[in-house]
Amino acid sequence: MSEKPDTEQQPQAESNAQGPRHASLVVKLGFTAVAMFGFGYALVPLYDIFCEVTGIGDSTTTTAAEEPVNLETDYDRTVTVEFIAQHEQGSFWEFDAEKVRMEVHPGKLYTTHYVAQNQSTAPQAAHAVPSVSPAGATRYVQKVECFCFEEQQFDGKESRNMPVLFYVDPEIPSNLGTVTLSYAFYGQPLLTAE
């Protein structure tokens, strides 16, 4: 008589061999979940560091500075401030800086304007996201008044000059001879109650 292979023992042997592999997979998946949670938790301080380094989204760029009192103007020095205006391509907006650049004395207040026009016939809301570069200049460009502090609402076809009242802190390092103040302008239809 020929012996038949024991087919009932093969699946049991395979399942015993897979047990350690399943346990290893569970441990790896658990470690991955913990690592992802840790990374998500670390994103807030990492974002704060990113904002401080780049000047994008930094609270110093979106809150009003105190108007300088007893701040001495440095008439022996000038800093070039460049102004950039950006808006979404294909949007209903025109957005430009009134001046491309200004030579300013640190410690003295200056005013410039940005011009925005809603080219749609419908009311639109818009907000501006400011940034200052190079990254080290963020704390030295102080905005006392700025259209970027609040959402702007425009009627259809409305155009508006929007002021920026600013100064450059006299403590700005001498190697920062040029700084750039940039605004990205974003709009959306204004929802009205009917």
What is the topological layout?
Layout: H1 9-54, H2 59-62, E1 79-87, E2 93-97, E3 101-104, E4 110-118, E5 124-133, E6 141-146, E7 152-154, E8 159-168, E9 178-189
Parallel strand pairs: 1-9
Antiparallel strand pairs: 1-3, 2-4, 4-8, 5-7, 5-9, 6-8
Describe the structure.
Helices cover 26% and strands 35% of the residues. The protein is α+β, with helices and mostly antiparallel strands. The protein has a domain of 131 residues: Ctag/Cox11 (Ctag/Cox11 (Pfam 04442)), CATH 2.60.370.10. The termini are far apart.
Name the descriptors.
194 residues; alpha+beta; Ctag/Cox11 (Pfam 04442); four-stranded antiparallel β-sheet; 26% helix
CATH superfamily placement of the domain at 59-189: Ctag/Cox11
Order of strands across the widest beta sheet?
A: 3-1-9-5-7
User: According to CATH, what is the topology of the domain at 59-189?
Assistant: Ctag/Cox11 (Pfam 04442)
Query: So, CATH architecture of the domain at 59-189?
Result: Sandwich
- Averaged pLDDT, please? 83
Strand segment count: 9
Number of helices: 2
Tell me the distance between the termini: 92 Å
